[in-house]
Amino acid sequence: xxxxxxxxxxxxxxxxxxxxxxxxxxxxxxxxxxxxxxxxxxxxxxxxxxxxxxxxxxxxxxxxxxxxxxxxxxxxxxxxxxxxxxxxxxxxxxxxxxxxxxxxxxxxxxxxxxxxxxxxxxxxxxxxxxxxxxxxxxxxxxxxxxxxxxxxxxxxxxxxxxxxxxxxxxxxxxxxxxxxxxxxxxxxxxxxxxxxxxxxxxxxxxxxxxxxxxxxxxxxxxxxxxxxxxxxxxxxxxxxxxxxxxxxxxxxxxxxxxxxxxxxxxxxxxxxxxxxxxxxxxxxxxxxxxxxxxxxxxxxxxxxxxxxxxxxxxxxxxxxxxxxxxxxxxxxxxxxxxxxxxxxxxxxxxxxxxxxxxxxxxxxxxxxxxxxxxxxxxxxxxxxxxxxxxxxxxxxxxxxxxxxxxxxxxxxxxxxxxxxxxxxxxxxxxxxxxxxxxxxxxxxxxxxxxxxxxxxxxxxxxxxxxxxxxxxxxxxxxxxxxxxxxxxxxxxxxxx
Length: 496
Hints:
With 496 residues, this protein is α+β, with helices and mostly antiparallel strands. It contains 6 helices and 16 strands. It has helices at 9-29, 272-299, 315-362, 375-407, 416-446, 464-493, and strands at residues 32-35, 41-42, 56-60, 63-64, 69-72, 79-84, 93-102, 111-117, 134-141, 153-160, 175-179, 190-197, 200-206, 217-222, 232-238, 245-257. Strand 12 (190-197) and strand 13 (200-206) form a beta hairpin. Helix 3 packs antiparallel against helix 4 and helix 4 (375-407) packs antiparallel against helix 5 (416-446). The longest helix has 48 residues, at 315-362.
């Protein structure tokens, strides 16, 4: 028997989630965060020339590319993962992961996992990573192993390094928090924002239905969660009998600082060994550059006194070149328009001459026959054609004027105001041409074209009586011919 307040329970849950979301936003607004490039990757230049990811390592069937990392392709029994090379050295952090899970089937497998563990789980049975991890695992489980029809699901599972993952129950017995979200085959990439601040873990999910990057929903909130002080970030995925493409587009890591505490500069986090290595690389690059400069001067002694700035165009020269290129394009367009107007003008002149010849042949006193246009309408057509010729002539003159202005711009190429005024004049002329052409097209559509006169109906010269008499006469002749032919054949047989 249901409780009386059973119907109000969903509303209460929504209010609770809203309160938690507002509280999380209020808490994060007061924090200061700093981007950590050593624990992040993002396209479009994601990999080196050798296919490796800076500050990350990939294992298994993972395929890095320029704009994403395919953790597993849509093939059966595939495993892959990517892990940071160095451990995290700060306690409070925030990560934003953008990924896609796509497949042809209605059901996919197995899923994707985001890790923060004390050691790198390079290979294993838990979504492509090792079991019995010490740290945090956030699982995007696609396949329903327990048959309870509660997948796809997002699980937050913690481990102290002594427990085995419960595959048969989809980890529901070990989950610290979960939410049902379908993250497969979405129109936009799915985003996960995971925040660990003062031993409180918050998981926010962007469902991939909208292009708004900030459209997050609260998935889980776990308090009093103790994680290792130092650990590795990682992403893994696996497929089984069913398969999906698991693609990670970006993994962004931010360090969170408490309000009021000074933000440590980035230089303090760079080890001295790396500084020496970068300095040595810079010196090697500088020596190689100086050597190439010397070789170039030996091969081109005539260019030794030339300044490097003279080899490149200045900003003013670039702007003038763009202006001249634009004028050239306008010049070509107006030439094409002028040719089209000449064609229209020739057609109109031919049409007027034909109509004039026809009128001169027939004269003005001839009474129009049935189906022919009266003289008044022909006069109207003549006046209309003359008006069209006048407008087309004006258009042609306007285009010719604009063409001459484009070919010979006033004031030279150095006056900025003259060039701007010149472009405004060209724009006005083009607007006039466009408006006049539109008026001509509209008038051509509205005018009714003259129709050819219809032929009068021809009178019938054959009545039904004559027709039947003709048919009877033909029938008698045909029967007589058949009888005559049969008699001739019988007479011929007597001689054999």
